Amino acid sequence: MEEVALGMFPTVFVRMTGRGGGVREFRALIDPGAEYCVIPKVDAFFLGFSEIANDDPTGQASNNLTFATYNGYGKAISIVMAQVELGRMSFKKVEFLALDIPQVTGFDVILGRSLLQFMKLEFDYPRATLRIEERTGELKH
Amino acid sequence: MKIRLGNPLLVSARLEGQYGIVREVASLIDFNAPYCVILRQDAIDLGYPHAANRHPDEERTRPDRVPVFTSWQGIQRGIVVRLNKVTVGPVVASEVDAVVLELQHPRFHTFDFVLGRTFLANCKLTVDVKKGYVNMR
Fold first, then answer.
1. A33 with B8: Cβ contact below 8 A
2. Rounded to whole angstroms, how far apart are CA atoms B25 and B44?
3. What is the largest CA-CA distance in chain A?
4. Is A90 exposed, middle or buried (0-12, 13-18, 19+ CB in 10 A)?
5. pLDDT in tens, A54-104
6. Is B130 close to A125, i.e. CB distance below 8 A?
7. Residues β-bridged to residue A103
8. In this predicted model, what pLDDT tens digit does every residue of B78-90 receive, in sequence order?
């Protein structure tokens, strides 16, 4: 179990392993309202997902998908991260969208429901804390 | 109160504006939005005529009503209105700030209001994505 301060955004450190064994550490926003996890394109590229660099509109990758947020629509490439580690928890084959996040936010990646489905979260806004608990006996593939 | 974890995560909220005017609106729960978000027409109908202004114009005369804040989409600003009361199930919050944001496609949404931290500061939310529910208390 992890307990973090909510702050302006509830963030945690995660360690991600991409395609071919590349590893990077990120500050991640926990957002159960987001359907997908999100990683900036440049980080996805350095983690081995070279298809991110394809900006040819006539030959789009088959894993390119359209998504909706309450502030409009967007397009992003869907990738599968080999492993995501959060504290003592470890998850394999997690789906991410490669999409740039404004730097001003102070976090690098977003953890959405494609990963949070394997955790139980408790947002205690009056105490300004977030408790993260791994769902026992599930996933870990 | 148990809420089904749909996509998007919607609940019904009761907003009380100036002069006792009340509206029931479909609302989206956004765990990380610093402010609640209200549509311009709803803010006007609830008794806040200054919501009809453009935020650069409002900022010239009442800069205190145009906060700048960070969301995951970057730096945003909008005109703020202070709702007298916001009620979702058993949770009642008074003096809740909501901003009027210029959304790209406001008529395409299935909700009219976003519940951000200015409301959520009054509750504790337990999220279980696998079981598909959010518990609010």
1. yes
2. 14
3. 51
4. middle
5. 766 666 667 777 777 766 677 888 999 999 999 888 999 999 999 888 777
6. no
7. none
8. 899 999 999 999 8
Asked if this assembly's ipTM is beyond 0.85, the reply is no
Residue A44: half-sphere exposure toward Cβ, Cα within 13 Å: 25
State the Cα–Cα distance between residues A48 and A42, nearest whole angstrom.
10
Helix spans in A5-140 (H): 41-46, 113-116
CB contact under 8 A, A119 and B120: no
**Spatial contact of A96 and A15, defined as CB atoms under 8 Å apart:** no
Tell me which architecture the domain covering A2-53+61-134 has in CATH: Beta Barrel (2.40)
| pLDDT at residue B61 in the model | 86
Question: What does the domain layout of chain A look like in residue ranges?
Answer: 2-53+61-134
Domains identified in chain B and CATH numbers:
2-136 (2.40.70.10)
Using the Cβ of B120 and the Cβ atoms of chain A, whether some distance falls under 8 Å is answered with yes
Cα distance between residue B37 and residue B35, in whole Å: 6
